[in-house]
Design a protein that fits this description.
By secondary structure, this protein is α+β, with helices and mostly antiparallel strands. Helices cover 65% and strands 12% of the residues. The chain has one domain: Arc Repressor Mutant, subunit A (Orthogonal Bundle), CATH 1.10.10.10. The longest helix has 25 residues.
């Protein structure tokens, strides 16, 4: 059990270290990292998504996500529409402006991520990391 806990602690320490590095980047002027997370999650959806479904892909409570979506909608980055399958539900999608912001910030962030990861890991280690993290994520669903 100790090795599993040690591995988990190392994962959390690595996450904290790179997130601090990313947070210090200069491309977060128009958008917070949490706002970007929501725009990124929406960019991966091929059709409008319900708030409850979006909540599975971000690290926010349902009330916090709802408030953040409200702010993004007020800024014209996210649009709400009725859910055709359930008249009581609302679906969300990116506006063209939201997609533009997500892509602009996303390109800079992707370069930063690539620099951070390739500076410390070999191509084989990167593939192993992806495999291991995907396996952990799949077992948590």
């Amino acid at each position: 059990m100790t090795s599993a806990n040690d591995a988990w602690e190392a994962l959390l320490e690595a996450h904290a270290a790179v997130m601090k590095q990313f947070a210090a980047a200069d491309y977060w002027t128009d958008l917070s990292m949490r706002e970007y997370d929501v725009l990124y999650a929406l960019s991966k959806c091929s059709s409008p998504v319900r708030l409850t479904d979006l909540n599975r892909h971000v690290l926010l409570s349902q009330p916090a996500l709802s408030r953040l979506v409200d702010r993004l909608a007020c800024r014209g980055l996210v649009v709400r529409c009725g859910d055709p399958a359930d008249g009581r539900s609302v679906c969300l999608s990116l506006t063209p402006a939201g997609r533009d912001v997500q892509q602009r910030v996303g390109r800079a962030h992707a370069r930063d991520v690539a620099r951070a990861v390739t500076a410390s890991l070999t191509p084989t280690e990167i593939r192993d990391l992806e495999t291991l993290c995907s396996k952990l994520a799949a077992s948590s669903l």
